[in-house]
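Thread: RING-type E3 ubiquitin transferase, structure

OP (GT): Posting the sequence first so everyone is looking at the same thing. Length is 219 residues per the record. Can we get the structure tokens written out before standup tomorrow? I want them in the notebook alongside the other entries.
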Amino acid sequence: MDFSKFLVTLLLVCLLTYESYVEAASVDQDFLRTCPSHRCNKHGPEIRFPFRLSTDPPSCGAQGMQLSCSGDDTILDHHVLGSCRVTEIYYRHRVINVIPLAEPSMQCPVQKLISTNLATDVYKQPQSSQVTTLVRCSRGFTPVDQYSIVGPASCLSNNTRQFWYLASASAYMSDLPRDCMAISKGISIPFTMADSFHRTPSPEQRIVGVTVRREGGGY
């Protein structure tokens, strides 16, 4: 092939590549016009593909990734936990943080976390879930280390003389009163993925907060 033919071939390849980029950019622009990102409030999590609002066309999101707005709250309807408030969406890590709403059918969300498999076809619990122990005490106390021992979750019992706590594997026995007894060990509780450089989850968020990870491909 002489040099002139080589230049012509190279020019054609460049034109084809340019046209493919233009076509891809046009498709992206059309998608963004049809499926723009949303927020339920100014500081709420961004809602974009693979998530979509319930008011968006189904093609704007992946199956089972529908969210909705209730006032300023971003809501996920989970088949086990029911309606949950979405506090964060980490698209890079394919993780969302949700907190179950206080509904009549869910007066004790801790019970759900302990006794129920939270995985669905779309979401699964992260492998880095915290292993905890359910502890029963005859009197209530305020944990010294509120990042290793969380509670009390008195809704687990109708007996007002029983107080229930979740203790992580890193908790020290000396931090528990002597009247406390381990009831169930090896309970896997999904962690709350917080922005460790800016915010730390509250004890309430740690005991009822749920982190679910999307099954399959990345966002």
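GT: Both are above now. Quick notes for whoever picks this up: DSSP finds three helices and eleven strands in the chain. Confidence is low (pLDDT under 50) at residues 3-27, 195-219.
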